[in-house]
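Progress narrative, Year 2. Work on LacI family transcriptional regulator from Priestia filamentosa advanced from sequence curation to structure prediction during this period.
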Amino acid sequence: MSNIRKIAELANVSITTVSRVLNNHPYVAEEKRKAVLDIIKQLNYTPNINAIHLAKGHTGIVGVVVPNMTLPYFSAVVDGISNKAMKHDYKLMIYQTKYEREKEIEALEMLKKKQVDGLIIISRKVEWSLIESYSEYGPILICEDRESKKISTISINHYEGFAIGMNYLREKGHKRVGCCLSRLEGSNSKRRIQAYYDFGEKFEMDVREQWIFKGCLFIEDGRRVIEQLKKMPESPTALLVASDYVAAGVMTSCNEYGVKVPTDLAFIGFDNHPLAEALHITTIEHPIVELGSRALAKIHSVLHEAEAPSQSQLPLKLIERKTV
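Result:
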């Protein structure tokens, strides 16, 4: 406060005027604003940003909880969030959690301590009830298909996505179908598995637990899947691969092991990543960047327009290429 008093004294204005200039308040006479800014420059004064945030009641910062920034899906969502954040003049604070519960709670505590204005959780491990208990401290949005009166959600219907893929493979004559997923305990993976079994039962397709390949996140996991398929006495003729990144690994490994695509093995990726286009991989397009953009827009609306939490979903689209 002594620095502000000094500035006010030298500029011959009130402390309130100095505070308004520091907070970029519009209702300050131009000559007084100039006098204050000149003194600030002379003194090389740096305002206490925490004090400014406290005075304003907001930080202009949105927290983003993301398990792994190296994965294309998550980085694309963050890209969408970042694009919209720039438009609304927000800064982002990224929490890369590696699905560690304690790290996710740290992010929630930042919201409670008013160090961020809102929180976007792209994927989580911490229980839903705990997240809801933090909703009183600021807006929270989760990229997940779930109903809630306290938390906004925006999602892609992963059940529908797998159903689209299963139906397309069925129409192409495939009866034995496997799938590649990341975390089996994740809510999105659970919906995909449900669609896998539901569709298999409805149309008498051969779907088996041993044909569900878990832990599929990276290109090298596609190689692992092909190596496992080669060892099976009976293997699926088609795969639903929940990431184009992994599907790219399947494609390159098929070439290496002499597996003909789509004659010996057909597969569908998800996301419509540029890599899928380059390798001509049939995929289910997820508007991932748009999902991130809408997530930030919702946080902004709750903060500035007092919107209530809400749930929304984005559409999916089959992109036919050469792997089926």
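The mean pLDDT is 93. Residues 77 and 291 are 6 Å apart (CA to CA).
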